[in-house]
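Tutorial handout. Part one gives the primary structure; part two gives the three-dimensional structure as tokens.
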Amino acid sequence: MGKVRNIKKELLSDNWYTLNRVTFEYQKADGEWETQVREAYDRGNGAVILLYNLEKRSVVLTRQFRMPTYLNGNSDGMMIEACAGILEKGNAEETIKMEVEEETGFRIDKVQRIFESYMSPGSVTEILYFFTGQYKDDMRIGEGGGAEDETENIEVLELPFTKAWQLMLSGEIKDAKTIMLLQYAKIHSLFD
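Part two.
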């Protein structure tokens, strides 16, 4: 890029994912170089999907406990979210199909990649790949609930899109990736 040089990383933690302190020089608009220090949390990249059924005008979301939200004022720690997961082997499409099956019990074969986003670029390296995918009742092959070894304890929610939209408007859905997908569905008239 030319505006960054002398990057030095110091590992602060690799307990769950990795947290690094990064010291570097950044060239300002006036050409002067300044030293900056930031912390960057690397948890890998992820994928998220809005599962939807046109005939039923419904979406499948999940509800699960999220400790960080509990620590920051979410009284029960429960979050309603679109199905998502960390990329396995770098493949967003295959990862999201696998996550759909693990978390919701549906086996889908087609997904559409719609965009990607840095979700918290000031401190987290993650890029999130966004998908939509249609489901039908006969695609259900299990109960979902998440992988046993990942202690997810996921509740599967099938909701009319209008109900999910109202939950977002009322603030009951507070998850950014889910809000973005519901807004995408509305803007692109997915159910019209």
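Part three, for discussion. Residues 71 and 77 are 8 Å apart (CA to CA). Helices lie at 67-71, 92-104, 161-170, 176-187.
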